[in-house]
């Protein structure tokens, strides 16, 4: 391929058609707008010297398109935060090479991993003509942006982990609430009716409860009780309460937040759970910890690493390291922005378009944004067997 030549990606035309029809009040036949067409995306020219750990200037500009987009990443931050920011930068660069260069002018700014700096840069972007802001990754900054008023504020596609969303400030990453809801829905679809939610105490507990209850209602199932638990006692008190409150639940959902679920699972095991009559549903947050024998038999809905396949080979060839979910999130948001710009122009980033109920399919799977700023994702449904994830169903969503 010629150096600098933009990839002719059929996804953008499929997405453009779907979005244009949505904007005009019509539904496309296919429903979901496709972010990727894996069979026909060609490899871009190799960008020598690029890597996830390479240094970067405070501000970088990519593309020559008429739609101005700002992306906020912790490029020079230390540790994992900086590594994540640089991976996301490379994912964004690949998306620009694939489909964005002629549609967007993407300005990537360095937040340095500092929430105050991220908030300041976000406000600048919002007030100086950006049509979309992608980022930040810092949770306090995303939460602050969600409190800002202004009907003309451009949409923000926030990349912060555990961000619940807000009006016009959309949560991009898979949340524990979404994983829990999809996992519960996976069992409800098989006929389970009565569920208990054990959720780590904290500000996220009510978000998880609401999402799970909504997801179950689609299948006529109910959340019988939600029991917040303290990490201090390993959930023992909440599990004792469960026995006196709920008679014969079909499943217990354990949303453990940042902590390992092992102590809670040990307490459940002492009560004979899981067993023939009662299943356990975990979340994607479990997988941040070493696989424990106590995880055996639990069900989990989480992203399919295979979804990144369409970009994985090209990314490795271009940047000399493997694509992961952070790369994919950044790629998808730049690709989505380019698709909307192609379909309805620089001023087409309306709630109607972004909150298309049919959703979009990208390298992180099927997703859609809700009016409250939360995202919902369809993902594979697994059961843990012999310390590994075994596929039960290709797709479950809870929406």
UniProtKB/TrEMBL annotation:
Q: Entry's PROSITE patterns? A: PROKAR_LIPOPROTEIN (PS51257)
Identify the InterPro entries for this entry.
Answer: Peripla_BP_I
* Origin superkingdom: Bacteria
Name used for this protein in its record: ABC transporter substrate-binding protein
Q: What species is given as this protein's source?
A: Mesorhizobium erdmanii
């Amino acid at each position: 391929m010629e150096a600098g030549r933009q990839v002719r990606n059929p996804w953008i035309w499929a997405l453009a058609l779907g979005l244009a029809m949505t904007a005009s009040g019509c539904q496309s036949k296919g429903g979901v707008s496709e972010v990727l067409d894996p069979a026909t995306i060609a490899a871009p020219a190799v960008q020598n010297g690029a890597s996830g750990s390479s240094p970067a200037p405070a501000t970088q500009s990519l593309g020559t398109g008429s739609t101005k987009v700002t992306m906020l990443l912790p490029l020079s931050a230390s540790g994992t935060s900086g590594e994540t920011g640089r991976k996301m930068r490379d994912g964004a660069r690949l998306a620009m090479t694939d489909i964005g260069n002629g549609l967007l002018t993407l300005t990537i700014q360095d937040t340095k991993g500092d929430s105050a700096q991220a908030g300041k840069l976000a406000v600048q972007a919002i007030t100086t003509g950006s049509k979309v802001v992608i980022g930040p990754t810092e949770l306090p900054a995303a939460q602050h942006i969600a409190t800002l008023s202004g009907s003309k504020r451009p949409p923000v596609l926030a990349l912060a982990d555990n961000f619940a969303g807000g009006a016009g400030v959309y949560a991009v990453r898979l949340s524990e609430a979404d994983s829990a809801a999809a996992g519960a829905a996976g069992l409800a679809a098989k006929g389970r009716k009565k569920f208990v939610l054990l959720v780590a105490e904290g500000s996220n507990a009510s978000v998880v409860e609401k999402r799970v209850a909504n997801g179950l209602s689609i299948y006529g199932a109910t959340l019988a009780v939600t029991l917040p638990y303290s990490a201090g006692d390993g959930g023992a008190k909440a599990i004792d309460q469960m026995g006196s409150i709920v008679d014969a639940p079909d499943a217990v959902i354990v949303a453990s937040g940042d902590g390992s679920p092992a102590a809670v699972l040990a307490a459940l095991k002492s009560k004979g759970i899981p067993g023939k009559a009662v299943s356990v549903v975990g979340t994607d947050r479990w997988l941040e910890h070493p696989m424990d024998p106590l995880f055996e038999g639990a069900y989990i809905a989480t992203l399919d690493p295979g979804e990144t396949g369409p970009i994985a080979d090209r990314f490795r060839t271009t940047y000399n390291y493997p694509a992961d979910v952070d790369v994919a999130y950044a790629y998808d948001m730049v690709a989505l922005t380019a698709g909307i710009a192609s379909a309805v122009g620089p001023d087409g980033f309306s709630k109607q378009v972004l909150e298309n109920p049919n959703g979009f399919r990208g390298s992180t799977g099927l997703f859609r944004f809700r009016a409250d700023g939360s995202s919902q994702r369809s993902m594979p449904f697994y059961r843990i067997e012999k310390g590994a994830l075994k596929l039960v169903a290709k797709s479950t969503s809870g929406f």
